[in-house]
Write a structure and sequence with these properties.
The complex is a heterotrimer. By secondary structure, chain A is mostly helical. Chain A has helices at about 5-30, 45-50, 55-60, 65-75, 85-95, 105-120, 130-150, 155-185, 195-205, 210-215, 225-230, 240-260, 265-275, 280-285, 290-310. Chain A folds into two domains: about 1-150, no CATH class; about 155-315, no CATH class. Chain A is globular. Classes of the chains: A mainly alpha, B alpha+beta, C alpha+beta.
């Protein structure tokens, strides 16, 4: 398939996944904001901006971090390339470019998300509750994913879409956890405190995973259990190991189909092997933040190898 | 005359580039005035592309370089036997009709000052003399001065400046001739440097004007003459850009710089032949 | 002003002409509510499929639909057979002309067409002179715009030798009609058009270059998804099962052109390009073009790839050269033209200019290189001020204009707000020229939806119809 087509498919998935993460982040923010502020600590919404990785752009445009502006920035603002609106628009545009590689159903899902977005943009903000916006985003992301799963040919294009979903999700899960641990929690003394637990629970909620977590672990919410759940538990759909396994699987399908392996396969297998051997204690020995930062870098490297091996058009 | 050419063009890139594509008009024309004894074009790390003789009779040769590379050398060497045809392009096979060379290009667009140089010419029927006169007027109006103009300087700009190089002379003459309804074109090639101290360039350019009954006739306003046995003709076009001996692109953010060296020398007939035998 | 009698393709007096016999009942048996429902259904189908004209930068709805009229336009087998011969004849002559003017130029030497019109034409590509494309074909898809003025009177309005657009509407209009009115297709024996993509692909494959020694790889080259015809490009690519590429997807290496794929470079043999000559190869044409493929022309001319339509084909279809097409048919084919040209005055000629300027009110005046219904004057439909304003334009640059009599364009019944009414139509069939010449029985019928309007262009309030050719 054309490298440009593969690249667009890869990015459709990444944009959809990213839109969903931004919506989840907004939900985390609004819940944390319901909690009495920890004295002497910065505004929680500000932490959220740090988490979104777009604090500088926001600061330039809006200045102070008040909830309404942050909602605009993360959801509607086209100046923010990772806002929900920007992501959905980009995903639909990529879809239009590779229309022939999609089924009518997938295109319909992408296109109706975009058309409805334009409706939302015309609706007065006073009529839009945050929860409606986040639910709307998740519903459409699910629709796109569902049509891909149910209607698309299982060819290389399908692999590139799924690589996009998994890679973006791995990155996003790692970032959300890192934010929780490194940014949201004011001081190290708070570890294990009520605030700590409340934040973890909120995070799980944002990942639609708090009930699953309780089924799997029960009892107290601890950092160790959460880390295990979101990093090492292959049952958790957003855990790092699940994402990496999915990438390995799709890369191996590509290698079989193309009769050719690239460095991306080697890298993905190495990453998967490392996670399979890892215990929670090892992670905390390394330091959760250090581990997550390293993982984010590794995933970015893998993304680069996928680009060089398939997407950039210079494949020989 | 037996002329030996050694022409090296070096491209330097401050960052490596990929997918270099070049289109060459670097092969001597086939006509009564010149005969190829030997000729070779080499592109460093290059892969030979498609080659063909175009409608104007020029051999066009494609080259590609996969890269990444930071430097590319195009090396042209060869020996050509020439005879003086008094500027006439005799025995040259081409299918493009002369009328095609009435088309104006950005580089050869007329302005008031250029038009003034054609004063008294319109309506004259001695077209060969008209062409000679135009050539002389261009020589008078634009003084030879290397570095005064750039690759993109137009005929009108060069005239306004009053200075230029062979490219400017040729383009100015082309503009004037076309203005009078005479098809004319830009020719690139080489010129043997003579010992009399007259300034000119070894990688040279002049103009051709199509005249009834004579066909294409060369005029070199830069040297106030018509091409003779000292000239080697490579290819033609509507203007300098169209006739460029090397056109090319490269992919990458790198900035290109260029270094050209050309030498054309006269070879004793005996020596030239022995060179041929060595090959 | 004299009342012009327009030929109605359905009625002759009160009698229904045979090709439309079945449609009389169909029309009468459809109550207004059903018609509105069907119309809404059709629009919905178009929108879902995604056929829209996205005209970026013009504002308005970027996903605008071209209005679709459900009332089909019908030709009998006999009518079509005659048209088909005329169209194929014209397509053959136009290609013979192109090969000639890039070769020895016999027609110019014979004095049948002025050298200036050919060799000083902006569309004449000096860079392809001396080259004969595979199978001697320059224009592989010839779109010939026809109008009808009577039962047997057809006129060619213009030829499109480069990349005529609109064929996706021919295919989609049929698809939608078949979905909505299957009974109509059972009752009438209508020749199918759905073989067009396969025939196009076969045509393109048949002109593979000299150096291609295998099953040729065909691609469609689009300027990109911002182009207003992008939908058509992707639609055709999909139906033909070929890649839709942009300039950036292709590159030249050695003697060939390759596309960038996830499995490495893949050689391309035939490029059906939907971009203009000027944007094909920055080395050869516009150095500032970001769309082209550097080195493509060298590969093309040395027989490494075929380009359809061939660069330079445009010289056969400008409005000044159009006048000489009947002469081409006589000169190359030794036949009399089966389809008539519209009498044309060239404002570049002094006598013609005089006539045109004194009869502006009766004439249609067009720019030589204009298209899309812009830059034209329809004398009888214009105000005195419009006529005078146009007069100044013509006087300023006469060579840029041609004039034709206002033709009494035929009408066909068309659904309008309060029922059915006659509206003016034209026809663009798509003739394929490769190893053989083929014409799918059908084409794109454009209809001027405004009452009395003679301008059928979609940009000027025109719509489209399904075009039927009945089997014998």
């Amino acid at each position: 398939m054309l490298s440009r087509t593969a690249d667009n498919l890869f990015w459709i998935a990444r944009y959809i996944e990213r839109a969903e993460t931004k919506a989840r982040l907004l939900e985390v923010g609004s819940r944390i904001a319901l909690l009495p502020s920890a004295a002497g600590y910065r505004n929680e919404w500000d932490s959220l901006l740090q988490a979104s990785g777009s604090a500088i752009g926001f600061g330039k445009k809006y200045g102070e971090a008040v909830q309404r502006n942050i909602e605009s920035w993360l959801f509607f603002d086209r100046d923010n390339p990772s806002s929900v609106a920007s992501c959905i628009t980009s995903a639909r545009e990529s879809g239009r470019i590779v229309r022939t590689a999609l089924t009518a159903q997938v295109w319909d899902a992408l296109n109706s998300a975009f058309q409805e977005l334009r409706q939302l943009e015309r609706t007065p903000r006073s009529e839009l509750e945050l929860s409606r916006l986040t639910e709307w985003t998740m519903r459409h992301a699910a629709l796109v994913r569902g049509t891909i799963d149910a209607t698309l040919l299982r060819n290389d294009g399908w692999d590139f879409l799924n690589l996009g979903f998994s890679l973006e999700r791995a990155d996003n899960t790692a970032r959300l956890m890192d934010v929780k641990y490194y940014v949201l929690l004011p001081r190290v003394e708070y570890v294990g405190s009520g605030l700590d637990n409340y934040q973890w629970t909120t995070l799980l909620r944002a990942m639609s995973a708090h009930r699953a977590f309780h089924w799997a672990y029960g009892g107290e919410v601890t950092a160790a259990k959460i880390a295990h759940f979101l990093i090492l538990n292959p049952q958790c759909p957003r855990s790092l190991i699940t994402c990496v396994e999915s990438m390995t699987g799709h890369l191996e399908r590509l290698a079989r189909g193309y009769h050719r392996s690239t460095e991306a396969q080697t890298k993905a297998r190495a990453l998967q092997a490392e996670l399979a051997e890892l215990r929670v204690e090892d992670i905390f020995d390394e330091g959760l933040h250090e581990f997550l930062s390293r993982f984010i870098r590794e995933v970015a490297t893998l993304g680069g190898l996928i680009r060089d091996g398939y997407l950039n058009g210079d494949v020989r | 005359m037996l002329l030996t050419v050694d022409h090296v063009t070096r491209y330097f890139y401050d960052q490596p580039v990929r997918a270099v594509v070049q289109s060459h008009r670097l092969t001597p024309s086939l006509f009564d005035g010149q005969r190829t004894v030997n000729w070779k074009v080499h592109v460093s790390d290059g892969q030979l592309g498609g080659g063909f003789r175009d409608g104007a009779g020029d051999w066009v040769q494609g080259w590609t370089v996969l890269g990444p590379v930071s430097e590319i050398t195009v090396h042209v060497t060869g020996v050509i036997e020439t005879v003086d045809c008094a500027g006439l392009l005799r025995g040259h096979r081409e299918v493009v009709p002369p009328e095609c060379y009435l088309q104006c290009t950005a580089a050869t667009e007329m302005d008031g000052a250029l038009a003034a140089l054609t004063e008294g010419m319109a309506g004259r029927t001695d077209l060969l003399s008209v062409a000679h006169d135009l050539s002389a007027r261009v020589s008078d109006a634009i003084a030879y001065k290397p570095g005064a103009t750039k690759a993109h300087t137009t005929a009108a700009e060069a005239l306004a400046l009053g200075e230029g190089v062979c490219q400017d002379h040729a383009q100015a003459l082309i503009a004037l001739a076309r203005h009078l309804g005479l098809p004319s074109r830009y020719v690139s090639g080489y010129l043997l440097a003579d010992g009399d101290g007259v300034a000119h360039e070894a990688a040279h350019a002049w103009a051709e004007v199509s005249l009834p009954g004579l066909g294409w006739v060369g005029f070199d306003p830069a040297n106030r003459c018509c091409p003779d046995a000292r000239y080697i003709r490579l290819g033609s076009g509507l203007d300098a850009a169209d006739a460029a001996p090397i056109k090319g692109t490269a992919r990458g953010p790198g900035q290109e710089s260029l270094n050209v060296s050309v030498s054309v020398s006269e070879t004793e007939v005996g020596t030239g032949q022995s060179q041929v035998q060595q090959q | 002003m004299a009342v012009i009698k327009y030929f109605n393709e359905m009625y002759q007096g009160d009698a229904v002409r045979t090709p439309y016999a079945q449609l009389q009942d169909w029309m009468q048996s459809m109550p207004a509510e059903l018609r509105q429902m069907k119309q809404a259904e059709a629009e919905n189908l178009f929108r879902r499929i995604g056929i829209t004209f996205a005209v970026y930068g013009e504002g308005g709805d970027p996903d605008r639909l071209i209005p679709f009229d459900m009332f089909p336009r019908v030709f009998s087998a006999v009518e079509w057979a005659k048209l088909e011969r005329g169209i194929k004849q014209r397509a053959r002559a136009l290609n013979a002309f192109l090969v000639d003017v890039y070769g020895r130029g016999e027609i110019v030497r014979a004095g049948k067409i002025p050298a200036r019109l050919v060799y000083q034409n902006e569309a004449y590509e000096k860079s392809v002179a001396g080259f004969v494309p595979p199978k001697g074909v320059y224009s592989h898809i010839v779109g010939i715009d026809l109008v009808r003025t009577g039962p047997d009177e057809f006129f060619v309005l213009e030829d499109n030798c480069r990349t005529p657009s609109g064929v996706s509407y021919m295919l989609e209009n049929r698809e939608i009609m078949m979905r909505m009115f299957p009974d109509l297709f059972r009752e009438n024996r209508i020749e199918p058009v759905d073989s067009y993509p396969a025939k196009l692909r076969r045509t393109l494959a048949s002109v593979a270059p000299a150096k291609c020694d295998r099953d040729p790889t065909v691609v469609i080259l689009t300027p990109g998804h911002f182009n207003s015809a992008y939908y058509e490009h992707s639609f055709l690519a999909d139906l033909m099962g070929v890649e839709l590429v942009e300039g950036q997807d292709l590159f030249v290496e050695g003697e060939f052109v390759f596309m960038r794929t996830t499995e490495g470079p893949r050689r391309v043999d035939v490029i059906y390009r939907r971009i203009d000559d000027a944007y094909i190869d920055p080395l050869c044409f516009r150095p500032d073009s970001m769309l082209g493929i550097p080195g493509l022309m060298d590969v093309y001319r040395s027989g490494g790839v075929s380009i359809c339509s061939a660069p330079g084909a445009g010289v056969a279809d400008d409005k000044a050269v159009y006048t000489y097409v009947p002469e081409m048919i006589r000169f190359y084919l030794g036949e009399e033209p089966l389809l008539k040209n519209v009498p044309t005055w060239q404002c570049g000629k002094a006598d013609d200019l005089k006539y045109v300027l004194s009869n502006l009110k009766e004439l249609v005046v067009k720019e030589v290189h204009g298209s899309g219904g812009y830059g034209m004057l329809v004398g009888p439909k214009s105000t005195a001020e419009q006529v005078e304003a146009f007069r100044l334009q013509i006087e300023a640059d006469p060579g840029n204009y041609i004039a034709q009599p206002t033709l009494a364009l035929s009408t066909t019944p068309t659904f309008v707000a309060d029922g059915v009414a006659p509206r003016h139509v034209d026809l663009r069939p798509y003739c394929l020229v490769g190893e053989r010449i083929e014409l799918v029985p059908g084409g794109l019928t454009r209809v001027a939806l405004k009452d009395g309007s003679l301008v059928v262009n979609s940009s000027q309030g025109g719509g489209v119809k399904d075009t039927w050719v009945l089997a014998e």
